[in-house]
Amino acid sequence: MSSTQMLIREQVECFSLPQTLDCGQCFRWRPDDAGRWHGVVGQLAPVLWMEGDTLTCEGVGEEDYHQILRPYLALDEDYPSIQRRFSQDAVLAQAIAYAPGIRVLRQDRWEALASFIISQNNNVRRIQGIVDRLCMLLGEEFAPGCYTFPRPQQLAAATVEELAPLQAGYRARYLIDAGQKVAQGIVSLEEAATLPTPEAREQLMAICGVGQKVADCALLYGFARDELIPMDVWMKRVMAAFYPNGFPSELADQAGIAQQYLFHYGRTCPEALGPAFWTQNKKQKNPASK
DNA sequence: CGCCAGGTATGAT
DNA sequence: ATCATACATGGC
Question: How many angstroms separate the CA atoms of A127 and A214, rounded?
Answer without folding.
Answer: 14
